[in-house]
Amino acid sequence: MPVGMSTFTSSQVLDAAHLSPLLLFSEDNSSTVYSLVNPMHDNENYLMNFSELLLGATIRFQKGGWLLMSRKKKLFFYNPFAREIIILPDFPGCYFKCDISFSSIPTSSDCIVFAVEESGPDVNEVSVHCVRRGEQDWSSYDFVEEMYSPLRNTITSFDGAFYCVGYDGALGNLNLANGNIYWEVLEKPCQQFKDSYPSFLEQCGADLLLVKLGCLEMPVRIFRLDFAEMEWVKVDSLGKHMLFISDITCFSAIAPNSRMENKIYFPRLCLNGGGVLFNSLETGSYHSFGSQHFAKNFCGTKGWLRNCTWIEPNWSLSTPQELDWFKPPSLP
Questions:
Q1: Which DSSP symbol is given to 220?
Q2: pLDDT tens for each residue of 86-130
Q3: pTM for the complete prediction?
Q4: Pick from 318, 330, 332, 251: which is nearest to 86 by CA?
Q5: Exposed, middle or buried: residue 289 (CB in 10 Å: 0-12, 13-18, 19+)?
Q6: Which of 271, 268, 242 shows the shortest CA–CA distance to 254?
């Protein structure tokens, strides 16, 4: 990481380049100072001070510039750009056994926070917890399930439903229609993969994509779900799209230029100061824009096991009513 870094403040005037996804991470979990790296703007680096109230908190998910964070049983949203906090009811589940997400930015009247929790290695059961904007308490539902081994990763919204993926490629489908909770593990795809390497699920254009990593020099693989045949089909090119993946959040975007397209951006930095690591589908290798880094694996790079994610900058200020979870915003 370069030594010289700027301080990122809300008073800065930003051009369009700064509104691209940023890599957010903390080098010291006992500090409220976070680093930001912009891969689309020469890997510019900034420092950002979070509120002291967030000391020791863990980032669980990100959408639209809002971080879902926890500290013990406390769960809350935080927008680090506007420095706004929204407090949620205490979470009833166990974070370390959960995939947790939210449907839309928390100031929206239709925002729902939900979690899929594995009950234990000897219990074929999945618990779903959810709380809607305006509700005082969480609702919890238990489902007997023998086909799904949860992979604690991001839950992805697609075509009005929410999906999470198991180690073998099996899809859990969570539907929150009409005020009810519906959970099922789809019969297909099932046991298409025989490994337990990291997987990342995200929407890209009109497709639901699965990114699978491997060990050593095994290439990154991308699949799209063929909904007609209900099977994962290999993808060789992302076209003009780019993917941003992390254990906390995954999303896609259309590249602003040809240099950025057809690549997967990882939450890792090159040790030689070369900036953000990416995998090029054209070369099948790992590179960075700031150096001549070229590798078949993560060697020569650094990542963070906690509080490291991609974030979409959001400078919009909220009203006091929007910042009160228990008072739904007025409908237009």
A1: P
A2: 999 999 998 888 889 999 999 999 999 999 887 766 667 888 999
A3: 0.90
A4: 318
A5: middle
A6: 242
